[in-house]
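To whoever picks this up:

The nightly regression suite flagged Exodeoxyribonuclease 7 large subunit as changed. Nothing in the input moved, so I suspect the structure step. Input below, exactly as stored in the fixture:
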Amino acid sequence: MISDPLSSPSGDAVIPVSVLNRAINTMLERSFPLVWVSGEVSNFTRAASGHWYFSIKDANAQMRCVMFRGRAQYAEFTPREGDRIEVRALVTMYEPRGELQLNVEAVRRTGQGRLYEAFLRLKAQLESEGLFAAERKRALPAHPRGIGIVTSLQAAALRDVLTTLARRAPHVPVIVYPAPVQGAGVSAKLAAMVEAANARREVDVLIVCRGGGSIEDLWAFNEEVLARAIAESALPVVSGVGHETDFTIADFAADVRAPTPTAAAELVSPQRVLLLRDLDQRHAALARSFGRMTERRAQQLDWLARRLVSPAERLARQNTHLRQLAVRLVAAGARPVREARAHFALVHYRWQRRRPDVAAGREHLLRLSQSMKSAHARRAEREKARVSELAARLQVLSPQRTLERGYAALIDAQTGRALRAPNALKPKRPLTVHLAEGSADVILADVQPRLSDEF
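Regenerated output under the current build:
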């Protein structure tokens, strides 16, 4: 519940963001158990503190993850960008930023091949048949008269279980039903031992266990024959296979799943042990809560450390920025000068190309002037010669020359026309006679025409 609410004028509860985020985080941690989540690694970062920060994503979504140094140092490999992995994590919230994240406790590579797919198929099949139903589970006896163990005599898990039972319940007899826990045909042998323990009725509870290993090492506990033998057992069965992060089909078929063989031994111990276990669980829960609070503070410290910039670094950034501005200022001042010079050079080049050649023009004009003078002189000479020729011709054809040869021109004084025929001469008709040295007005007294034109 959210505590210490403030009252608003409207009477509604008002709470700070930090209180809301703390309440959401608490609810997430209580509501969501540890779960395996698969995805592709992106944005992987290892902080100076040793914590891992990354995201896992698929085609449709992504989730931020944090794996603190205490767990990251025991990881079998370091994820890289693009790796497909599976993480066992608790859903939490990073309260200062209100971001949902996965608090990773274990990491492994995705899939483990076809065995993992077969594991999922068999689990789904048996679950659909109701083999894992909660109503089939039986409670463990509070005071067992005997405890049976199905495992290998050479298994280290057997020694752990026997040591734990001897320490916690030395008065309870223990019977071992030996069977190999790894290899071909092991599942049938383990199932036969479960059935033998039920047939003999020597014990009140049965532990099926072995130590940790890869999925291939634990595959005998993922076979259908063993799962059905455990589910059909009249004795309550506790499965303690592998480590805490290992899950097998036998774990789901058993009445109780213990994280380790030692934990299985603790679960079947008398009531005093149960009480001690409850106390241990409360202590462990308190330790986990304290550890997560410490981890959240460490994460917050890493986040604040990334935001913190030292004065020297800030001054270095500012100096770099000032140098960049100075370079840009010099470039901005020099650019107009360069552009003006380039423009002037271009205009000067165009002007040089289009500048008239005065000397060549003068020379051309001088040649034209000389040509014009020569042409004018030649034309004048030609015209002068022509005039002389025409004058000579005119002199030859001039009426004055004709008159100088002794001829005379008779002009009718009344009409002003030249008389050409003898019959035009009439007595007492006034005439003007033009001679070589002058003219005279005459009046004809008489006209005697001649019959011949000869002089």
